[in-house]
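Structure ticket #2291
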Amino acid sequence: MRRLGAIWLAGLLASCSWPSGRDEPWYQLRPATYWIARLGECEIPNEWGSLGTVSCRKPTLAIVRMGPAAVPACIRALKGGRQNMRAGAVKALAIYGPRARTAIPALVETLQDFGQPAQVPPGYPGSLGFTDRVVSVLAKIDPEVKESLPRLMVALRQPESVQPLSALPSARDEAWARSLAWRVGRVHLAFAAAQLEPGNEAALDVLLDSLQYEDPELRNLSAEQLKELRRGAPVRDRWGNQIGIKAAAVREWAATALRNLVPTLVPLLQHTDPAVAKRTAGAFHAMGSLAVPPLIELIRSRNRSHGDPEVRRGAILALGAVGAPASTALPDLRLLREDPDELVRANADAVLKKLDPNFAAGQAPN
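Resolution: structure written out below.
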């Protein structure tokens, strides 16, 4: 009987939150790291912390019951190499919100660690979906971004560490991978900073520079190799690495980031500070055709969640800033001459004058 009582008492204590020797709480005889991994493996359809699916219900309940005492375990999980642990830690920290301020440095560091391949599942480290989640958590933990944004900017300014040249193939491959990871990491840091502070000048500069990045090895190519490269044929350096792969990956990450930022940049075109409006217009011009599809989506949004006339006005101005590459939007701009909002109609007329040489302000819409 005494033995049964001891077992019952041990189970009761284990079902509560209590720290282990590693400052890690337990729930139902399982440590926080177990529940963090479980949370990372399950799918939560809407908000993190939702009890909407069977697979997520128990790990989410465990995270809630253990409380902020599990934050140190979340920080360790962020610094570990397993994707499910990192994803689970981000979800757990979202549940804790402002009570997880000590995790801000680790969250920023996580954005710098992008040595994974470009093709990874959304929501896992290495994808913009994961960066979106980290940004959402930072905004919950630090709503006024007083700590998270400065840390992001410091990380963004860190120079690339240059490795000494080596004749060993393994060392060259490692240096190549490190350089790629550093450049892609900067894209993710800039993307995060531009979300926390829309229009952040330094972040936009990094993204626009990355959009134009070229492999330094191109300067060492012969005329024949450059000709092959323009034909789309693979060209390799003296060590056998294909030239242009790294640059293409960096440009693709930057393009994806800028496309996702378009809705946050549009309102800045009508900012009360002319310098902000001018800088944003310059960013749209630099993006060129890249910005056109999401802008067309915005001007078609009259009956959608972001169907405010203010959004359409800004999107029209952005198309005007893009210039000639926005000619594919002419049919949509003509339709906006019948928009119920007077300023939308006026903006559409002004941009049509700029983009369509055959357009006369008084003509009937096509």
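Closing remark: The chain has 17 helices and three strands.
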